[in-house]
Design goal:
Elements (H helix, E strand, L loop, with lengths): L2 E3 L4 E3 L3 H25 L4 H9 L3 H28 L1 H9 L4 H14 L14 H28 L8 H32 L9 H4 L1 E3 H7 L1 H9 L4 E3 L5
Antiparallel strand pairs: 1-4, 2-3
Helix pairs in contact: 1-2, 1-3, 1-7, 3-4, 3-6, 6-7, 9-10
The protein binds protoporphyrin IX containing FE (HEM).
């Protein structure tokens, strides 16, 4: 069994492979947003400025396709990771929604509106973290599917498809791109870096480590499960 100990009050939450996947994901998403939105707003100062930086229209397109390939390769790798590795299987199992998530959500609403004193008893992931994970998965599936259809048009393949299909695909790809931008910058960045308690930045994405204190506060159920084992060891394929 794979075991990790608390070391100097810290616990490894994400291993190196997971941290690298996260870094590749956000670099690819940021590059896709910059190169994509500069096309959406090509007639504004922002679009012209970005297209210049990106080396002109053609090079902007090539950059977009390169990072699209990175995103697709990452998706394939991630699917293998959560299907075949012990840690990946354990992580995906913790991403499943359960009845407890909805009970915690009600407790959280009651607490935030000053209607109750109880605080939610979150496990390894809270409802919002699960929502963000599945949002990235479904969002990427939509962007990749619509992106491939748009590529067929760019490459002048399949011109037999009706025009309405290109129009709808373009709309979905471009609005979903804007939505990803808003979700990333208004929600995710606030949630994990800027909110009180973590400001100016949570380092978990970089070091993979979470402090005992943070674990106890943010993921009390996981903390209690770990402490059931008096040896202070964390059973990766057991009780996380
Ligand atoms: C989260 C990932 C992605 C984001 C945020 C994104 C964003 C965008 C945006 C905003 C546009 C401009 C649409 C418009 O207003 O005309 C665009 C265009 C386009 N995207 Fe993406 N995209 C992503 C992934 C992909 C993928 C995976 C592919 C291919 C498999 C792709 C292929 C294209 C193509 C072919 C175009 C139109 C032509 C061009 O840019 O040269 N995109 N994208």
């Amino acid at each position: 069994m794979n075991k990790t100990k608390f070391q100097n009050g810290y616990l490894i939450r994400f291993n190196l492979i997971e941290r690298i996947q996260h870094i590749i994901l956000f670099v690819a998403l940021i590059m896709l947003l910059l190169t994509g939105l500069s096309l959406s707003y090509y007639d504004s100062w922002f679009g012209r400025f970005m297209i210049d930086i990106e080396g002109g229209l053609e090079s902007r397109g090539n950059l977009h396709y390169f990072f699209a390939f990175v995103l697709m390769a990452l998706g394939v790798f991630h699917a293998f990771y959560v299907t075949f590795s012990d840690k990946g299987q354990s992580e995906i199992a913790h991403m499943k929604y359960t009845k407890k998530d909805f009970r915690n959500m009600l407790i959280s609403f009651r607490y935030n509106f000053g209607m109750g004193k109880a605080t939610p008893y979150y496990g390894r992931y809270n409802l919002s973290q699960k929502f963000q994970y599945w949002g990235v998965i479904f969002g990427s599936v939509i962007m990749i599917t619509t992106g491939i259809i748009l590529l067929l048009k760019v490459w002048k393949i399949a011109m037999l498809f009706p025009k309405w299909l290109w129009d709808i695909t373009n709309l979905v790809h471009s609005f979903e791109g804007m939505m990803i931008f808003l979700v990333l910058f208004l929600w995710h960045i606030y949630d994990v870096h800027l909110s009180p308690g973590v400001f100016p930045m949570s380092r978990v994405w970089l070091t993979g480590k979470i402090s005992e204190e943070e674990l106890k506060k943010e993921h009390p159920e996981e903390y209690d499960e770990i402490n059931k084992d008096k040896s202070g060891e964390w059973k990766i394929d057991g009780n996380i």
